[in-house]
Amino acid sequence: MQTPSLSGASRWLTRYYSARAAFSLAWVAAAFALGRGHAAVAAVLLCLYPAWDAVANYVDAVRSGGLRRNPTQALNAVVSLVAAAMALLAVQRGPGPVLGLFGAWAIVAGLLQLATAVRRWKTQSAQWASVLSGAQSALAGGFFIKQAFAPVAPPIVTIAGYAAIGALYFLVSAIWLALKARRGGAGEPVGA
């Protein structure tokens, strides 16, 4: 697969970050509106979030030069797919195991996102938001693991807050790239 031009890569990343933000915001809305009171809906949402992350990372890796050129995203897709499958088992055991699983997943996925952003830093704008997002994800994962062992594990809205912050980072990246394109600097190799 041929590597897209920088302006083409920037257009792709703008659409990609926009789609990630939109999905995360919809997921947060569903978690608050439906996930609190319905265990079955919460279970579906808890499996859906890492499954979406797997698909998004896979598609971005393929669109950004292929899986071999994007090993952190390829690995992130696999890790997220495994987390989604494990969430099916964890939801049957209660909120504590789910939160612990999400914590472990958030740490690994966050570090892989951070590595992807650092790799893209020289060729794409708006990677500072992805760096912050990856670091925040890894930190949040540690807090999730700690909360998983609390006497009463927090509900799905705890994860919804994490997803909302992730949506904000993706939205900032999409807006940053769109504004840069409007000013004529869509493909400038700038890290900020």
UniProtKB/TrEMBL annotation:
Pfam families: DUF308. It comes from the Bacteria. Keywords: Membrane, Transmembrane, Transmembrane helix. The keyword Transmembrane helix applies. The chain crosses the membrane at residues 12-34, 40-62, 74-92, 98-116, 128-150, 156-179. This is DUF308 domain-containing protein.
